[in-house]
Amino acid sequence: MRRLREDGWFSVAPGVGFWLARSDVSAIQTDAGVVLVDTGEKVSAAEMVTALHRWCPDRVDTVVFSHGHPDHVGGAAVLDSDADERGLPRPRVYAHEAVLDRFAKYRRSAEYNAFVNRRQFQDPSITWPTDFREPDTCFGRGGMRLEIGGTVFELHHGRGETDDQTWTWLPQQRVLCCGDFFMWVAPNAGNPHKSQRYALEWAMALREMATLGAVLLLPGHGYPIFGEARVREALNEVARYLESLHDQTLDLMNRGATLDTIIHTVQAPEDLFDRPYLRPVFDDAEFVVRNVWRLYGGWYGGDPAWLKPAPEAELARELAALAGGAQVLARRAWELAQGGSLRVACHLAQTAAVAAPEDQDVMLQRQMVFRRRAENERSLMARSVYEWAAREPVTRVTA
Description:
Blueprint: E1 9-13, E2 16-19, E3 25-30, E4 33-37, H1 45-55, E5 60-64, H2 70-73, H3 76-85, E6 92-96, H4 98-108, H5 110-121, E7 137-139, E8 144-148, E9 151-158, E10 165-170, E11 175-179, H6 199-210, E12 216-219, E13 225-226, H7 228-254, H8 259-263, H9 285-297, H10 312-323, H11 326-338, H12 342-355, H13 360-375, H14 380-391, H15 394-397
Parallel strand pairs: 4-5, 5-6, 6-7, 11-12
Antiparallel strand pairs: 1-2, 2-3, 3-4, 8-9, 9-10, 10-11, 12-13
Helix pairs in contact: 6-7, 7-9, 10-11, 10-12, 11-12, 11-13, 12-13, 13-14
């Protein structure tokens, strides 16, 4: 793979630029001006736009949103302001029609999204936007073909991490801008904090992309992939990972298995464990399984005791009393954690804490258990929840 700097735009193919950041941006030069796929985060947008003008002084004619996550659309308003300051027409923005519903949902749930992202990224300063640059033109399920300044752009809709995703194909250049369908980590198809994700449809989109003969893949996060064989291999292997988790889960559901059985049975394909773009550093295969269950089976996991459960604190007090007190549960939790039985240890530690939230010894044992659990997790999603649990009072955790 070509060597790329990490401080600005680079030319990755004739007339094609790439902004490598926490959220990537792709740029294509045309006779009508520059076309961008995504706009990056708002916080870094001014830097991105300034560097873009150094890379190519032409005006930005068009923007395509790959989906409506703020880290991909946040720079659009900065691009508008930049055009105004330069006395130029604002870029025309294209997106799938579901982006509008996503923006509306984000406005309704801004406080919740701020809260879960603070927990997810361990950053108490995170806020959630409510002001979004809405697209000028939306397209539906059938996609859209654009010809801008002599360059053809094919916009395709697919569902994966979100229901509003667009992947963009440039057939003349054989360049694929795939947004978050490819991110250099195991697919974020199971995020426990967020709305429904679509593992099978994600895989279907990747399979379709793999047939195109792309020689350059520009992802939503991470480095480009150069070369037709490498692009095809990466797309097909990520698709197989998702298909395997989906198919195993659905097969067990069709055989009447409970969610508990399924999440402790389904495994990702072993031969894909060493792939650099399938490392579980962000999401966890177990969470993908839960999202497949949620898609087909709803929220009931098959345990009748949890269909209409008792209040958590009431159940915890009963269990603690049977065990001989909350401190007995807490001590046993730490013993189990030290011995490596972290899943059971977390159950006992949390039960003890809910039963006796004012007991400082119990709280300390719980803190140690969840900190040990966090240290043994690879995925950001799991690790951040356990770190948050270790740090926050149990009343916050169970609220």
